[in-house]
Design brief:
The complex is a heterodimer of chains A (160) and B (399).
Chain A: H1 3-10, H2 16-23, H3 27-39, E1 60-68, H4 77-84, E2 89-94, E3 101-107, H5 110-121, E4 127-134, E5 140-141, E6 144-145
Antiparallel strand pairs in A: 1-3, 1-4, 2-3, 5-6
Helix pairs in contact in A: 2-3
Chain B: H1 10-14, H2 19-29, E1 34-35, H3 47-58, H4 71-85, E2 95-98, H5 100-112, E3 118-123, H6 129-135, E4 139-144, H7 155-161, E5 166-171, H8 184-196, E6 200-204, E7 230-235, E8 248-251, H9 254-267, H10 273-285, H11 287-311, E9 323-324, H12 335-346, E10 348-349, E11 351-352, E12 364-367, H13 372-398
Parallel strand pairs in B: 1-10, 3-4, 3-5, 5-6, 6-7
Antiparallel strand pairs in B: 2-8, 7-8, 9-12, 11-12
Classes of the chains: A alpha+beta (160), B alpha/beta (399).
Chain lengths: 160, 399
């Protein structure tokens, strides 16, 4: 895997100077490389990983399974585009296995999500069935552990 | 009241407690200390290795192992040395599994050294060599390696330290605390002197998998004429992140290993059984983990070296282990003052260089066996500390 992208995936806040030092490349080369990745759409953007449980204005998310009938001409792509168009939908994945799409859907309440699935998703032409799984708690997200506060515990003993 | 002093061995009483200890005590008592002082991997033992340990317990393999270690492990160790360093040892006669590399060091000293013998120990170095040498009845003769030599041992310095009583040379490379390594050409020069003066070598290669850049570790045992003069010490702690399993080994000439095995058999019996099963898995299937951890250390190393140089603390590029050894003389502080003020003012713990021998004065040991996130915070605080020191001294001089 590209080392620069790997580092940015663990922490997009590294400065170009830090990245340059770690990778043993000149700083302007790293800056140019990042620019290029951004321009080519390889780096799509930068987001914070938030532990929302610590905040009052919380929300609900669910994983929705979708079984669909693929279209003759466009296969699954058309269905994906229809799903992506909803603001409520955070992520859309085409899956291998017993169902076709997995969607991450966000709402203020469980009711919101239930209504969204019933009224918006299951009524799309080609959707055969849905299955809704509410996310109860996030323990780890995008490689980051969310449950242990922000203190990184070091269990190593100081010896010799 | 009993006067215990009359019962206590006078050699042991005269040993100084480790200098690192003091700073650990301070660090332990303070809250929110960011430590860069730990000398063990931050990685956990790779899962498949742990799993083999667990499996052995599930199968009820809870007995002693043979004194030398399980034969499968002895074979894997010798295969590993053949594969990595082109050295061939007999598993049954030239290999001994010990409780960490530390036990093997102790055994080697007690096997090779006796009253009146001088043992040459380069410094800065890990804290155990001098005391263990003394307890074996030997006299440590320390050679100071120098910043200008990238902390490598130079043949002329070795030559100058040799007397008719010299018997053994300790070669602690890749080095804790400096991160220095010895390249083949350096070792060839050392080997010439060793052979000319008919010495033995104890080569502590515990950090052998942690060398950076294009350079692989070279064992002095692979230099012409040195195989028969070298006891190699190694272990699983650093390469496979297995410190707590307490497993090391010694490789060397059969007559030496035979005597070391006697001591081991009477003093220890055998190394931990569970750890040995895990170690077999480490040697068979652990190369990928070693490479992954090395790559990660390498990135951290570059970041830390770069940061210190940017702060104006000259830091030679360490090519081994997981320590950097920046020079702090430009701050005008002694190593201990620097470390005490850094921990008091910025709550960052590093170890004074003189804990590893007097010649470490003017340096500090910084471990980069920490996550990048942790390192970033710590380096930022050290930078602030240096900035404030500089401001302070400027104010002083303009007054």
């Amino acid at each position: 895997m590209d080392k620069l992208l790997k580092l940015l995936c663990t922490n997009s806040n590294f400065s170009t100077a830090e990245l340059a030092a770690m990778l043993g490349e000149p700083e302007d080369y790293i800056a140019a490389q990042i620019k290029e990745y951004e321009a080519r759409g390889i780096i799509k953007g930068y987001q914070a990983v938030v532990n929302w449980e610590e905040m009052d204005d919380s929300f609900v998310e669910a994983l929705i399974e979708l079984k669909v009938t693929p279209k003759k001409e466009t296969g699954f792509d058309e269905m994906a585009e229809l799903c992506m168009a909803f603001d409520e939908v955070e992520s859309v994945y085409l899956m291998a296995g017993v169902y076709d799409f997995a969607l991450i859907v966000r709402g203020q309440t469980m009711q919101d999500i239930a209504m969204f699935v019933a009224k918006k998703l299951s009524t799309i032409d080609g959707v055969v069935s849905t299955g809704t799984h509410f996310i109860m708690r996030r323990y780890k997200d995008r490689g980051m552990v969310l449950t242990d506060g922000d203190v990184e515990k070091d269990e190593r003993s100081l010896i010799l | 009241m009993i006067d215990y002093n009359k019962f206590l061995n006078s050699s042991i009483r005269s040993l100084r407690p480790s200098g690192i200890r003091k700073f650990f005590d301070i660090a332990n008592e303070m809250d929110h200390v960011i430590s860069l002082s730990i000398g063990e991997p931050d990685f956990q033992t790779p899962w498949h290795i742990r799993d083999e340990g667990i499996r052995s317990l599930e199968k009820g393999r809870t007995w002693y192992s043979p004194n030398r270690g399980f034969s499968d492990l002895l074979i894997e160790i010798t295969e590993y040395y053949k594969r990595r360093f082109s050295l061939t040892y007999s598993p049954s006669e030239q290999t001994l599994v010990t409780v960490g590399g530390s036990e093997a060091i102790d055994l080697a000293f007690r096997t090779l050294v006796e009253e009146g013998d001088e043992v040459i120990i380069p410094q800065p170095a890990f804290v155990c060599y001098n005391p263990l040498c003394v307890m074996a009845g030997g006299t440590p003769v320390n050679i100071n390696t120098k910043n200008k030599d990238n902390f490598r041992l130079k043949a002329q310095d070795l030559e100058a330290a040799i007397t008719p009583r010299t018997k053994l040379l300790v070669l602690p490379f890749p080095n804790n605390p400096t991160g220095a390594i010895m390249e083949r050409s350096d070792l060839e020069e050392i080997a010439e002197v060793v052979k000319r003066h008919d010495l033995m070598v104890l080569s502590d290669e515990i950090y052998c998998e942690l060398t950076y850049g294009e350079l692989n570790h070279v064992s002095i045992a692979s230099i012409d004429g040195m195989y028969e003069r070298t006891v190699v010490i190694n272990g699983f702690s650093k390469s496979y992140a297995m410190t707590g399993w307490r497993l090391g080994y010694a490789l060397g000439p059969a007559p030496v290993i035979e005597q070391m095995t006697k001591l081991h058999q009477y003093g220890i019996m055998s190394a931990p059984t569970t750890a040995q099963y895990a170690a077999i898995e480490a040697l068979r299937n652990g190369d990928r983990d070693v490479n992954r951890m090395r790559d990660e250390y390498d990135m951290r190393r570059r970041l830390v070296v770069d940061s210190f140089n940017e702060m104006g603390l000259h830091c030679f590029e360490p090519l081994g282990a997981f320590y950097v050894f920046p020079c702090i003389e430009s701050t005008g502080l002694s190593s201990e003052e620097f470390c005490t003020r850094l921990i008091m003012e910025k709550h960052v713990a590093v170890v004074p260089g003189n804990a590893f021998g007097e010649c470490g004065e003017g340096f500090v040991r910084v471990s980069y066996s920490y996550s990048l996130k942790h390192l970033q915070v710590a380096l930022k605080r050290i930078k602030e500390f240096i900035g404030e020191l500089n401001d302070g001294s400027q104010a002083e001089s303009t007054r």
